[in-house]
From TrEMBL:
Listed cofactors: FAD
Tagged with keyword Flavoprotein: yes
Domain Photolyase/cryptochrome alpha/beta span(s) in chain numbering: 6-138
Organism: Endocarpon pusillum
Alphabetized SUPFAM superfamilies for the sequence: Cryptochrome/photolyase FAD-binding domain, Cryptochrome/photolyase, N-terminal domain
GO cellular component, as recorded: cytoplasm; nucleus
Key words of the record: FAD, Flavoprotein
Family: Belongs to the DNA photolyase class-1 family.
Protein name (Swiss-Prot/TrEMBL): Photolyase/cryptochrome alpha/beta domain-containing protein
Length: 525
DNA sequence: TGTTAGGTTGCGTGC
DNA sequence: GGCACGCAACCTAAC
């Protein structure tokens, strides 16, 4: 039976918000007869991407918050979380729900691009119209590249120039004030396809005493499209204090914006990487990753502050150190990624990445893409790598950062510089791809474009080449934390050490080491 | 085709 | 404590 009004699936992915969503707006502008906000619980991310407990928690925080916001707009609505791969379940939904339109925000990562290309073909086959809108960055990365002569955006100067040609970023659009009903949602007639759980890159995070049950039923254990719990994922050990969701994101943004001096004078290089509780930067990056905060809303609210301060003749910081600069850096990396494509996250086949004969090179698959494993060419390098990962190098500054990363899923940008420099050109000569994989696993704000870009930057393989600028694990943290409070917090075995030795405890006399309760250098070593 | 200046965020020294 | 300077295996846009 032909339908006069559109029947729309809105496919949420990394755009977990209602405010300033061009794609959501486009879906609602269709004036749908029925509207299905869905999330597909994709086995690719569950098993084949590296995602630790803290990021799973952040994601499900965002999903729960979004779902409750949808319900507030229409009590019949929620985020319909469907536990099957999008590639297999979407065609079944198109048919079952007589869908006319599929709408989603563009995702620029390699897997997502392939997935979306496939899904668009399936939609075409089913006679479903697809609407895709860019909403993740200040500028469409492809447009930035076009205005950079078709080349990857490799510096802030290039990015600023291309951005200037494109004009101001779009103004944010308000959230919807109402939502149409969903139609019939029962999926029990669907032939549920459960994924193959092997190989499971996240096996280390699964608690073997719990059996995972995330894919047992397509609508969840209570057949209500519930968001999977960490228990259902078989994952335990989320330890981060940083929580997700649009509500928290908007509240955090308000707090930042309400501090005119902080917002107007923000200069990244002057923020302390040793500050914790509270941190010295905004901690909004995970919200940008999951889309619980619009990048354009942040940009324009900061712009308002700049304007007001200018009128009051107060100083403002400027790009690249300013808050606007931080947002533009993100666009620079997205632009570079867009021009390079899938090899952006690796060295081989990546035209912007310089070859260095690092230890622990990646194994590649038949397409010359990372195979998920690496070659141990050198036992010492492997040992350095493992000690780096788990925060037992013996350099307190490095160990404190890596422990904070594992525990909280976030470390300051300059802390990331310090540990990345240390693992690669600064000390261990381990391949930057190893470090990037650890960040992928542990960061709650992991973003392929920014992560790969920053690792190439710090390893001097792209974007940056002044190899002689090395972060000292002793001198660098001293600048902002001479007493070593950060180290004392995250490496508590050193908490009694005198500040004279806090960054190089091996220099403390053995008698003092005994007195302070931690023997760094035993006799005979 | 050559030269030059500049690049978000270094360190150690000396004043 | 703050600043200037040398270090010196770079890269590349702009002229």
């Amino acid at each position: 039976m032909p339908h006069s009004k559109p029947r729309v699936i809105y496919w949420f992915r990394t755009d977990l918000r209602l405010h300033d969503s061009p794609a959501l707006q486009a879906a609602l502008d269709l004036d749908p007869e029925v509207f299905y906000p869905i999330w597909t619980w994709d086995p690719h991310y569950v098993y084949r991407a590296r995602v630790g407990a803290n990021r799973w928690q952040f994601l499900t925080d965002c999903q729960r918050d979004l779902s409750s916001s949808l319900t507030k707009l229409n009590p019949k609505q929620k985020l319909h979380l469907i536990r099957e791969a999008p590639q297999t379940v979407l065609p079944k939904l198109f048919k079952l729900w007589s869908i006319t339109h599929l709408v989603f925000e563009k995702d620029t990562d390699a897997y997502a691009r392939d997935r979306d290309r496939g899904v668009m073909k399936l939609a075409e086959d089913a006679g479903v119209e697809v609407i895709v809108k860019m909403g993740r960055t200040l500028y469409d990365p492809n447009e930035l590249v076009k205005h950079n002569g078709g080349r990857p955006t490799m510096s802030m100067a290039q990015t600023q120039k291309a951005a200037a040609a494109l004009g101001d970023p779009a103004k944010p659009i308000p959230p919807p004030t109402s939502l149409p009903d969903p139609g019939d949602t029962d999926l029990s007639s669907i032939d549920h396809q459960r994924p193959d759980p092997t190989p499971d890159l996240n096996a280390a995070h699964r608690d073997l005493s719990h059996k995972e049950s995330q894919y047992t039923s397509i609508m969840g254990p209570n057949k209500d499209f519930s968001i999977p719990t960490l228990e259902e994922m078989g994952i335990s050990g989320a330890t981060t204090p940083h929580r997700g969701g649009e509500t928290i994101a908007l509240r955090t943004l308000d707090t930042i914006i309400s501090n005119s001096d902080y917002t107007g004078l923000f200069e990244k290089p002057k923020t302390a990487p040793t500050a914790f509780s509270p941190q010295s930067t905004t901690l909004l990056s995970p919200h940008h990753h999951f889309g619980s905060l619009s990048i354009r809303l942040f940009y324009w609210r900061v712009q308002e502050i700049y304007q007001k301060r200018k009128q009051a003749q107060k100083p403002n910081s400027s790009i690249p150190e300013s808050l606007h600069g931080q947002l533009l850096f993100r666009d620079m990396y997205f632009g570079a990624q867009a021009a390079v494509g899938a090899p952006f996250a690796q060295e081989v086949g990546n035209p912007i990445c310089k070859f260095v004969d690092w230890h622990l090179r990646s194994k590649l698959n038949e397409h010359n893409l990372l195979a998920g494993d690496y070659i141990v060419d050198n036992e010492k390098a492997e040992s350095y790598f493992r000690r780096w990962k788990f925060g037992v190098t013996g350099f307190p500054w490095i160990d404190a950062l890596m422990r904070q990363l594992r525990l909280e899923g976030w470390i300051h940008h300059l802390g990331r510089h310090a540990v990345a420099c240390f693992l690669t050109r600064g000390g261990c000569y381990v391949h930057w791809e190893r470090g990037a994989e650890v960040f992928e696993e542990w960061l709650i704000d992991h973003e392929v474009a920014c992560n790969s870009g920053n690792w190439m930057w710090l390893s001097c393989t792209a974007f940056f080449s002044q190899f002689f600028r090395v972060y000292s694990p002793v001198a660098f943290p001293k600048k902002s934390d001479p007493a070593g409070e950060f180290v004392r917090h995250f490496v508590p075995e050193l908490k009694n050490f005198d500040k004279k030795y806090i960054y190089e405890p091996w220099k403390a006399p053995i008698v003092d080491q005994r007195k302070w309760g931690c023997l760094v250098k035993g006799r005979g070593v």
